[in-house]
Each structure stands twice: as structure tokens, then as C-alpha cells.
Amino acid sequence: MGLRTWIDHWPVYRQLTGTDPLGRGVAARSRHTDELTPRTATSDKVVQSICPYCAVGCGQRVYVEDGKVSQIEGDPDSPISRGRLCPKGAASKQLVTQPGRQLKVLYRRPYGTEWEPLHLDRAMDMIADRVIETRRRTWQDKVDGKVTRRTIGIASLGGATLDNEENYLMKKLYTALGAIQVENQARI
Amino acid sequence: MSNRLSGPMPDVSGEAGYIDHPERVGFFTDTTVCIGCKACEVACKEWNLVPETGLELTGMSYDNTGELNANTWRHVAFVEQRVPAERAPADLAPPGPPSPRGALGDGEETRWLMSSDVCKHCTHAACLDVCPTGAIFRTEFGSVVIQDDVCNGCGYCIPACPYGVIGQRPGDGGAFKCTLCYDRLGDGLEPACAKACPTDSIQYGPLDELRERAQARVDDLHAAGVTEARLYGHDDNDGVGGAGAFFLLLDEPEAYGMPPDPVVTTRDLPSMWRWAGAAALTLLGCAAASFVGGKR
Amino acid sequence: MAECHPVGFQWVVEAKQRGATVIHVDPRFTRTSALADLHVPIRAGADIAFLGGLINHVLRNGLDFREYVTAYTNAAAIVHEEFADTEDLDGLFSGFDADTASYDPTSWSYAGAAAEAAAGLREEQFEPITLHRNAARSDEFGSGGPVVHAKPERDETLQHPMCVYQVLKRHYARYTPEMVEEVCGIPKELFARVADAITRNSGRDRTTAWAYSVGWTQHTVGVQYIRAAAILQLLLGNIGRSGGGILALRGHASIQGSTDIPTLFNILPGYLPMPHAHQHESLEDYLERAAGATGFWGNKRSYMVSLLKAWFGDAATPDNDFCFGYLPRLTGDHGTYRTVMDQIDGKVNGYFLVGENPAVGSAHGKLQRLGMANLDWLVVRDFSLIESATFWKDGPEVATGEMRSEDVGTEVFFLPAAAHVEKDGTFTNTQRLLQWHHKAVEPSGDRRSDLWFYYHLGRRIREKLAGSTDPRDRPILDLTWDYPTEGPNDEPSADAVLREINGYGPDGEPLKGYTQLADDGSTSCGTWVYSGCYADGVNQTARRKPGDEQSWVAPEWAWAWPLNRRIIYNRASADPEGRPWSERKAYVWWDPQANGGRGEWTGHDNPDFEKSKPPDYVPPEGAKAQDALAGVDPFIMQTDGKAWLYAPTGLADGPLPTHYEPQESPFTNPLYGQGSNPTRQVFPRPENPYNPVGSEIFPYVFTTYRLTEHHTAGGMSRSLPYLSELQPEMFCEVSPELAAERGLAHGEWATIVTARTAIEARVLVTDRIRTLRVQGRRVHQVGLPYHWGWRGISTGDPANDLLPVVLDPNVHIQESKVATCDIRPGPRPRGRALLAFIEGYRRRADEEKQ
Q: In this structure, is residue A145 part of a structural domain?
């Protein structure tokens, strides 16, 4: 920074020489203030999304900077919500960035008193084994002489924030496995 | 140079040295359509990265925020009232039924008022007047903003504010309040609270336009029989020279926890010290503080 | 609505400013009431009496929209003379069997239909109702109606004593304003103002909308609540028209989608019923028994075959019934509460919880926790360690000593889930709008989408079973499961899944809609009602044309099922001749000049009707599917094209909504000797005791609800500081009168007690909770938000722990909006003392009974 510039930014100098002799506006501005830019303007990308809370389906714009969500606010283009959000929708960024969100798989062995770490790949393998074993053990080819080809040993209860595509794969897989007790918040 | 500490001031930004500046902007909060959802509180915190205030059930209806302070820049007040049956706003909706709401019997009914409070961005801002470091300044939009890189946490602004808006942040020491999302305005965005507000109770825009709109809304309400509708903070001739954030209320301001007749705490200071240095300001700031009394 | 759907409420506020009257009916004065023109406090559980009172007001005073009612509903149909009403049988309809607590609905049918049944259709039409009830078969009619095989006899003058209109009139004749006051606690004058407002605001030129939420569905008569609203709205001509309707304000981002593409036991995608072991042995049985031949359900073979092709691909051929035999069969109720009982009984060994927290979110939390403690393994997928993942370590039963970690054998896998910004996909909102959300960032750590989890779980199971010759493994190995994956985590393509849901034609191109589906296996389609969401190879759900650049209907924002129609049954927005009922309410109409003078349906929305079917079309004899519906039949999913004021079949608890008291009530039923719904589903077992009716031990009514600041059982809000600080603690809301009666102090603790357990809450004494006068005495209601549990930032006792399990017989949804309780000052007892405390209450309630 040259001397001239440095002096230009000296509040008292600006106060005495500029349009703001009281030093209450222009002359009081700090360099930081002059350089303020909203983080929405510096984001790497903006992605259109939908609020995950209630079923109104408000539009959201998700701002991303350095691979992280930097801001979520209402999408003014949405004819449903016109850019507005409720407190939960407005807290969406905290929902996805909160420290309470688990990062890693946890495992509790039968009769265990504490959680243990478990590799995701190992967990998936163990769950697949449990499904196959339980299904074999509890299979019902017939009930009361009628063909049922099912298991009632495996049940599922899903929340209603699941995507349609997720529900679709769930129903498809469970049905092929013969699991029928596939349920959702929609019945609650 | 006209009186810069009280009374009307048509060009607040010009007075602060901005030559070619945008129109003065502000908030009009129409409490008759506030649903008390607190989206404004959350949207403000998300945008401005304001810390949480703590977990306390206050018992003051659904208000668990309590007040405006360093970590609460928008605060929704909830007021549960018993009112005489005829006082509740009449039906705005012909051909609907007349409207006692929540009749309690014996000619009384219940009424639940909600209002989102915020910094008033006063025409004559005492906080700005008393700030000895130049941390508080008037923006080109006419709003009043604390620069946290300049603020040294002296706290003079806190008792100076006639509305009790400003607070000192625990752990940080700096004074904080609503910035009218100054960073957003520069990019043509509206403040986070106004953008989120589901029912448009919080409206942002050029102050002149908002005042016209507000008056029209009051007229409509009066025509519909809601005679208690009134504006608060819209008048250039009030104690702060008119607020940059004003309100449409259905009761006396005290009912909502707002001062009935706020006065810029520096109004009566002799004109001499306008030109005085930091030392004098400090002294007078203390005087102002002892006169008005701090909010905490 | 202001409480739980604040952003949707902007339209109500705007409507009010434009002159609409807003009426809020709710036991509590809420944030919605605060903005309404009129708040109508009602005793929880009494809404059918209230709606029935309005129906009676309309019928008694001849205020129905007669032209609409006659043309578009079954008001003129003649009911079989054997039908006996609740007025005749003191609260029961004809056909009740006390031993099975169920109805044989034979006598409810139309006169003409019964005649035809005698000619050979009887067995098919009148399935044993117990079977029907146990398999929640009503749900299969989600987007259609049950089967009526014959055109009923009709009396267009509506004078025949057995025509639906007259049956209805008699059924509701005693639902007078005086009775409404007696049952609901709504003063006559207040009721009169509601009745006047809605009738004056309905007709040719005006419409009235009803919006509801789980306050109407979570009852032992939940389905009949909605039916009652439907009857009222049909009588007033408010269905299929702009500004009308019965609007379900659903509570979760894609709870509508979770029904359309169901993770529900009784249906397949697109409301196709799951096959039943006793009825649907072959595809032919299934198609013959489970669908009508007329209306759009007449194309059910195409829908089903295309689904089987989507799932089993080349393996599905005409010779093997398109693998219909691969589908597992139901034998009764397999709903979530039945499942919990089966867990406790050791019949269910593995359980997946996917973004759901039943330990605090479902009725009777203790039953849920006992069930989960009796599993072999449990998989929990969520953002944070919710109560359902940790009950074995820190649940209420651990505190009381009823459960010790070292005794719980359940193996628990917790897998962190990706958030909505970390994955592509669609949510279906409450107005049937599919909206695509784009992935913004990659999920960190082990966080994965549920799409990823199920795709890779399926992939692993298929790999492990590869080469198996066991016939039971064929469906898994024949499953189409080859979705492309992308990115660092091998995320399956949601876009590819959506394309499969949309369906492909014989040429491999995406279908334009379900009308292209074929029944010969040449088309595939994962969900027929969603077909068209990927029309022209374009993801229609991702359309984002700004609202202010298109018409008020905004047809180019996202995509609504079916076929982007925004208001269903909108043919009813025009009169029988196809003209708008009024210029002001014009929405969809017949334009005789269009289409080269042949005419077609046009308007602001896509017509929910065949575009070229003229209003004067009369179906030829023997016509099938949609061809069998006339040009004046707007309800195209119904076999008869009419809306049903009276349901001659399809419901477990009667053809007409009838006021019954909740399972737990301080009152007997003032209308009938029959107290509560005679077909309600009860679970009489020691873990699930019910408070006796009229008990002095449990004299108060409580209701549960949500607050704006939190979300359901708290999994997406109690761990967020910005939301938790706004409502930091569990509280209860009581009237000043109840506070005085029980010595409750504002801000202090209270204990709320039922036969299940006791919870504690801070007390808010408020005028917003009203003491009502019912049957000549005062009734106090206690308000309980149900967001809390013992984990997260903001903690508190779960209100759902207070509830019993008792269900609606049609859809197996629990009665969680009303039950009885006691309330007393002070915090609840801790540890074992809590069990002794509850035992004392149960004992006194038993003594009281004797």
C-alpha cells in the first residue's frame, strides 16, 4: 500500500477533507466494510433444491463454496413459495452442517453396552448376510395352504423425507426378497 | 447545516457524506399478518452467522428469545391478551361473519399479537452519535451499521439506544446488532429476514415507498373497522426523526415491549460538542447513559 | 396451517386480504387462529358431529348445489332396501357381526347392483369384509374407488326414499346445532356462523376449500372424517374446481410420494394392491378381482404388466404371468403397529429404520422400544443418533430398570444418511407435485443416500445369491438392478431410476404418459401414475420456469401427477354441457370450435379428462375402461364416474360417516347406544392398557400436535441450535380453569398420566386453551406438543409415550389426536418409582370399573 492510499484510508484525514466532516458515514468506513461482499456472490455454484421439511415443497437455492454449503435460502422462482421459507426451512443449512450429524458408521454388538466403530463396507456386508440368513430362517412358502412366498422376519419403517427414487428401490428390493412389512410415516 | 441530532432529515445518507447514493431503504413490519413463525430470527442468524442465544423456556407465550441483543437481531414478541369482544379487529372479509376471535364469554375474547422487532436504523441514531471509535457508521442506504473490525467493545452505544437494540456479545466483547444485511444490499439482495418472511409481514424497500404502502394498509384496516391499527416509527417528527424500520401495530407499542415515545438520547446535547473530540464524546456518552439508563 | 405449513399459509393471508373469510376449527387457539376471522374451538375427536351438523344444515335447508350434485355424484342412486342405517340400529349399520367386530357390506349396495349380484357376481363383489379389513384393502382405492359392477337405478328427482340423497338426509337429521353443541362444545350461534359462511360462499360463482392435517386422520374414525368433509364439499359443489377441494396438508417433504410409490405394506407403486394369498393366486385372479372394468382402472392389466416388466425385465413373459408369482402375498394386516406387536412376540427379527424415529415418534413409545429390544438386528439410517438407535443404552426403560443394556440382544447398525443437498432426487409435495432437487455437494465420511444403501445392499445380496438354484431366490436374481453409478461413492443414478419409474415404450424411448401403456409386455413402467414425468426424454420434474413468467396455474414448474394435471377431477369445474359454472370460476371447459370443429377440452389447466370426449358422449353397451364413462362423468377413476356421497362398498366401518366417541373419552355417545367405532382395531394386551370410558381417574382430554419451530419427533430439529433455542423444552398447555382445578402453576412442572405411563412438562397456562361445555358439563383439554425425546440439544419427555395403540379399521392409522389423562403439579417420579406410580393409577382405574 502506498503512502497516499494509506493516508486516504485514515479516517481523520477523510473526515477533514471529504464530504463527511462529522465522520459518521463515508469517512468512518473501514477497509473491511468497503470490501464486503455477500457470500452468495462469491459462491462457486448455486443449485436449485427443495426444502426437506414439510410437504409444501418450497424452492431452495443452495450456495456452494469450496465444496461446502455456504448458504441456503428461498428460491424466488418457485410459484409455490415465492422465495420464502419458514424457520425450519431457513435452518436448512444448519441441518446439513450441524456438528451433531454423524459422520461414521457405528455398531452395537448384541448385549453390548457401548458403540463400536465399523467400516462401512464391512457393515454393508454384515447387513446383507443378516438379511439373507433371516430371510431363509423365516421363509413362508405357504400359509394355511395358500402360497405366500414371503418372510415376515424382516420389516422396514421409512420416514417421509425419502426421495421417490429411494422409496422405489426399497419397495422393489423388499418385494423381490419377499419382505412384506414395508411401512412408512405415511401410515402414522 | 441543519439540525443533525433531531427532527426530520430528508437525506440521511447525503448528510453522512454520500454524494451519489441510493434511496434510503428500511423495513415495514406489518404485524397484522405476522404468524409468529420466527423464520426471520433463523434466517437472520443463518445469514449473519449469529451464535445461538441459549436454551431457556421463558414462559412468555411462545417467545423464548426474550429480547433483541448481540445474538438476537430479530425478535418476535408474542402477546396474549384478553380484550373486550368489540375491540378485536372486525371481519375484514365481507361476505363473511363478523369476527369475535376466540370468544372467552362475558364479553371478552382472546387475542394473540405477534410482532417481529428489529433495529430501527434511526434517522438520528444515538448509538452512532456516541460511538467514540467510528465503528458505527451510516451507510449509503441510510442504515446504521456497526463495523466489528473497528468496534473496541466500549459499550457506549448500548445504553444510548432508546430501543434497547444493541448488546455486547459474550466472549467476544464487541457490540452487535442488525446490519440491515448491509453486505446483501450492496449486491442488490434484500435482507435475509424480509426474504424469508412467509406472509410478507416484514417488507423491505425504499422507505418512502414503504411509508405510502403502510398508510394505505392502515386506511384499509380502518375502513374495515380495525380502528386500533396504527403506525409506529414512521413519523419524521418523532423523537428519532423517524425510524428506518417502522411497524403497523394493533395496540399501544408498550404492549409489544416497545417504548411509547422513544427519543434520541443525544437530542438535547449542545451543538458545540458536535465538533468536539473523542474525549468529550466519551464524557457526554456517559452522561447520556446515566440519563437514559442502560437496558441491562 | 400457520403453525406447520407457514409458507403455504401466505396464500391464505393473501386470500384474506382479497376478501376471503378464514375459519379455523381446532381445540386450541393457535397461530392459525390468530390470523383467522373466526376460531371455532372443538372438543378433540368430535369432528364428524361437527361436519355432520353442516351436512344436515345443507340438506335440511336445501342449500346443496343441486345441478352439480345430481349430475356428478351418486345422490340419485337407489340403495338396496335391506340397508339399515345407524338411526335404525342405534349406531350400527346393517351387516354387523359382533363376534368378529366387522361388517358384511352386502346390504349397503345399490338396488340395481344387488340384482346383478344375484346373477352371478355376488361372490366377487362382496368379499368377506374381515379379510378386506385386515389387509387394509381400502387403501388400494387410493386414487380410484372400489368396484361397482352395475349401473344403479337412479331417481333424478332425488325423492325416492331409498335414494342416496334421502338416505343421507335421514342419517344426519339428528345432527342439529343443538346436538353439535352437545357433542363438540361449539355454541349454536358460533356453529350457525360457520354454516352460513360456507354455504353462502359455495355455488356457481364461489367455492370454499377445506384444509386438514393429521388432526383429522389420526383417529379410530379417521377415514370417515375425510369422507364427511367429502360429502359436504360435494353437496356444495366444491370438488374439482379452483378454490375448492379438501386439501390434505401433509407433514413431510415426500409423504405424498411415499404413498404414490409406497413403502406401505398393502400397495404396489401407483396404488395397485399387493396380491392377497386367498384371492390373487394368478395374474388373472388378481386382475379380475381387484379392478373394475370401467373407468381408468379398467386398464389395470396394462399398469400391472408394465410394473412387472420394469421389475423383472426379460424374465417377465406372457407365459409366466410376467413373474406375477414372484410377488409375496398378504394374509391380513401387516401394518407398522401389527409389526411392533410381532416384534414383541418374537416373530420379526430384522428391522430397518430409514429416517424414522418410532421410539419417540410413534404411538406408545414403550411398545416400540420393547419391540426393538427383542430383535436380532436393527439397521438405523439417520443424520444423528436418534432415540431409536440408542434406546438400549439410554431409553426410559433403562431409567426405570425395566431394561438393561447387557440384557438386550439386538445387534444395532447405525449408518449416517446423506441430506437432501447431497443427492439428486424428487420429492412429491402435498399437491402431487414432483420436484427434483439437485445434488449440491458430495456427502462426507460414511454418509450415503438411501438410494446408495438400497442399491448396494441389493447388489451385494444378488452377488451372494448368484448361482443359487433355490426357486425362492429367483425373484432377486431376475430383478432388473443394473443402474449406472457415478462419482467417488458409486452413487446410483437417481435420474435412471426416475426414467424407469416413468417407463419405456417398445422402442426404448421414455413414455409420454400412462395412456401409452400396453398389457402385452411391450411397455415397462415402474409407477403408472408417474408416467409422463420423463416425457420426451426430459426430466419434467426439474422444470424451473419462474412463477412470474407463466400463468397462475404455473404448469411449467415441476410436474404434477397424473399427466401434469394440477387439480384432479377438474371436468367438474364445468357444467354438464361443458361450460364453466361461472366466468369467475372458469377453469377447464369444452371448446366446441377447437380441434377443427370437433371440439376439445381446454382451459387454464390440463383437463383431467379425455381431451376429445364431448360432454354429450354416451357410452355404448358393453364399453370398457374409460370408454364406459359418459361425457358428464368427471370422476374418471371411479367405476361409475361419479363421486360417492354414499359408499356402497369399500369401507370397513360403514357407508356413511357417523359420530363415534374416541377409544378414550370422558363421555358416552349422545347420538347412539354404540359408543366408539365398532370396527376399530384394538390390541388388548397387558402392555397396551386403555383408559376406561368416563373414568374419574383420567378425567381430561389431551391432544398432541406440532409447533412451527420443530419437526415431527425432532430428528431434524432438536439437534439444531437455531431451532432448539426457539422452543427449548417440552411443555403442556392448559386453561386457567384447569390450572386452578389441579393447582398447576405457570412455568412450573406438571405430570401428565395415562394407563401407559406418565411424562413431565413445563406448564403454560393460557386463555388459548378453552374449557368447553359438553353434555352439560365442563371438559378440560390438555395440549401436548410431541417433538421431544431424551436426545439432542433440546430434550424432554415424549408425548407419544402417553398414547395407546388403537387404530382406524380402514387404514390402520393410530388414534393419536385424542385420548384421556390426568394431570397434576410437579415433576414425575423417577426410576422404579415411576412404575409404582403408574401401577397405582391402573389399580384405581380397575377398581373404578368394578
A: yes
Q: How many residues does chain A have?
A: 188
Subunits in contact with chain C (3 or more CB pairs closer than 8 Å): A, B
Is A45 part of the contact surface with chain C (CB cutoff 8 Å)? yes
Q: Are residues A49 and A18 in the same domain?
A: no
Average pLDDT score over residue span B223-247: 95
Nearest Cα residue in chain C from B58 = C747
Whether A114 is covered by a domain: the verdict is: no
B interface test, pick of C14, C22, C35 with most B CB neighbours within 10 Å: C35
Which positions ≥6 away from C821 have C-beta within 8 Å? C691, C698, C700, C701, C702, C752, C753, C754, C782, C802
Count up the domains in chain A and report the number.
3
Q: Collapsing DSSP states into helix, strand and coil, what is residue C306?
A: helix
List chain B residues with CB under 8 Å of C200.
95
C377:A109 CB<8 A: no
CB-CB neighbours of B211 under 10 Å: 18
**C38–B96 CB contact, under 8 Å:** yes
A20 to chain B, closest Cα gap in Å = 4
Do residues A49 and A90 share a domain? yes
Same domain assignment for residues A142 and A167:
yes
- What's the pTM value of the predicted model, to 2 decimals? 0.94
Residue B292 pLDDT greater than 80, yes or no: no
Of C328, C331, C435, the CB nearest to A175: C328
Any idea where the domains of chain C sit in the sequence? 41-248, 681-849
**Could you tell me if A27 and A52 lie in one domain?**
no
- Condensed to tens digits (0 to 9), the pLDDT of residues C311-360 reads 999 999 999 999 999 999 999 999 999 999 999 999 999 999 999 999 99
pLDDT tens for B186-230 read: 999 999 999 999 999 999 999 999 999 999 999 999 999 999 999
Would you give the distance in Å from CA C239 to the centre of its chain?
18
CATH architecture of C41-248: 3-Layer(aba) Sandwich (3.40)
Nearest to C457 among A94, A107, A128 (CB): A128
What architecture does CATH give domain C681-849? Beta Barrel (2.40)
The arithmetic mean of pLDDT across residues C97-105, rounded, is: 95
Cβ neighbours for A125, distance < 8 A, ≥ 6 positions apart:
C460
Residues of chain A with C-beta less than 8 angstroms from the C-beta of B136: 28
**Within this chain, do residues A24 and A49 fall inside the same structural domain, yes or no?**
no
Of C26, C33, C206, C11, nearest to B99 (Cα)?
A: C33
Which residues of chain B have a CB within 8 Å of the CB of C190? Answer: 103
Q: Which residues touch C758 (CB under 8 Å, ≥6 apart)?
A: C751, C752, C802, C828, C829, C834, C837, C838, C841
Give the span between the Cα atoms of C824 and C749, in whole angstroms: 9
Tell me the CATH number at A92.
3.30.200.210
CA C409 to chain centroid, in Å, comes to 35
Residue B51 Cα, gap to closest chain A Cα (Å) = 12
Domain that holds residue A158: 138-187
Asked if the structure places residue A104 within a domain, the reply is: no
pLDDT digits (tens, 9 = 90+) for C423-460: 999 999 999 999 999 999 999 999 999 999 999 999 99
Nearest CA in chain C to A184: C263
In a domain, A87, yes or no: yes
C16 closest CB neighbour out of B59, B62, B92: B92
